[in-house]
What we know:
The structure is a single chain. By secondary structure, this protein is of the alpha+beta class. The chain has one domain: tt1808, chain A, CATH 3.90.1570. Helices cover 30% and strands 34% of the residues. Strands 1, 2, 3, 4, 5, 6 and 7 form a seven-stranded mixed sheet that branches. The model has no long low-confidence stretch (mean pLDDT 81).
Amino acid sequence: MEHRAISEQTVKLVVIAPLLDLAGFYRHPFMITAEEPIEIVGIEGNSKIKGKLDILVVKNKLWILLIESKSSSFNPRIGLPQLLSYMLAGLKGREPIYGLLTNGQQFQFVKLLSSPCPTYSFSRIMSIDFPPDDFPKVLTIMKETFRDTLLTLVQ
């Protein structure tokens, strides 16, 4: 990344794929899907948003974690509207649903709650550069908050 920006596809391959492996999401009972098509229809049915989820972690049809990646040349926050749209589609009356924005260098977790009207919050932006202990924190959050906690909640 010091010499040139890396593409969104390379971010998924080089950063996200190993992170999902280290967090244990490639093992049963989880399932990973990539480029999953999604369509969101407005309340009156006259507006539609179509797109593809970059990465979706599923357990027993329950959406565990959505990941939206961007090229390293962009701030990951530019993916927030896209990620929130996808998260709204997966909310379906349950709460919370989690997402992760990344450009391979910076990471930001997003939490969406459904009631009474959808609201979201997010973590601080964590970086692999400063401070140097942020990347292990990202892995710890994925393992302990999402994987281990959700394993017990959705048995």
